[in-house]
Amino acid sequence: NYGPNEDAAEYFVKEVFPKIKKRFPNTEFYIVGKNPTEKILSLSSNDIHVTGFVDDIVSAISMYSVYVSPLRYGTGVKNKVLEAMASRMPVFISKVSREGINGLVDNENCFFIDETNIESKICQYLNEEYILNNISLNGFNFVKKNHSWNEVFNELIID
Questions:
Q1: How far apart are CA 34 and CA 54, in angstroms?
Q2: Cβ contacts of residue 97 below 8 Å, gap of 6+?
Q3: Is pLDDT of 46 > 60?
């Protein structure tokens, strides 16, 4: 029910997903998160699923092939992106979705998307299991090295 998330989900469902469906007819899209608005609930269809709250976000995220965060506005570190990477998911993330997360590298530990390439970039890699697995592992290692509780705690300690 957060405005930027609602905007991103609606944008993806209306502008991007139909193009992906043309190339990959069996594709489904899941909108996962608590308190979906009426607008988000109205996006549900046979191929678009709105889960609402889930008990275990890591298990929920891990069930899918890729994670997409097409935020177009918003502020702050996007912890959900870090959660997805920590869950060994290949992440496709917009400029806004990666704000505040230093060290992300396109085609190395994630995929950078924008409104000009989102559909083509996702479609380019959907059947590239080897590449998706490498990006997933690199993303996991990036989060482990730079965003684990131990690493964050150690940065806060003053000797």
A1: 7
A2: 69, 70, 71, 78, 81
A3: yes
